[in-house]
Give the backbone structure.
Amino acid sequence: METSEIGLSGLGRIDQYADAIRAKAMELTDTWGGAMFIVDPEDSARLFKALGFQDDVAAAVYERVYGLHYVDHVHAGGDASSEFTWHGPDVTTLVLRGFDDPGTAFSSINDATARDFLLANRAKFERVLAAIPAYASKLMFSTKIGCGVLRAFGAQLSEESLFDLALEFGRHRTTDLEGRRGVPTAFVRAFTLTMSSTLNPSNALH
């Protein structure tokens, strides 16, 4: 299903497949080395609009995923809240679009197909990249972590390919004195989110 075809009634899938969303968010937290990135309501609405969802749907996703309570955020004053983290939008998009197995959603993406996919979907990729907070372009994670994130959804990309794509599409990459290679978090997220909102599922949710 195209993101633009999903109405407010379709958001019921978030509750219906809450366990799948929670499980993938926990897996991705581990894949990102335990890092947790909190999504603000405004960022969520802007992102889901960039992914092609209708304005009312984009605005409503945040509260639905926030309500899944997969992160408990305790504040200094003693108050606690749930959070929607950046480990949730990909699987949420896939669930809303009808994927019954988010873990294989990107299985068509590999070293031979990744660049062609990004070229074919560059306009959407750029919209999604622009919707991601600017600070994420300065958070450099290793190519190993980036490939692990892609692999969590079934893609099979080598670190060398991801490193090259980060420069071409993400606009920069890093290498330190001891040879550690970094790619921008924003690039990895824009790549996976573009796939989440574009690739077609083999089986629809029922």
The two ends are 13 Å apart (CA to CA).
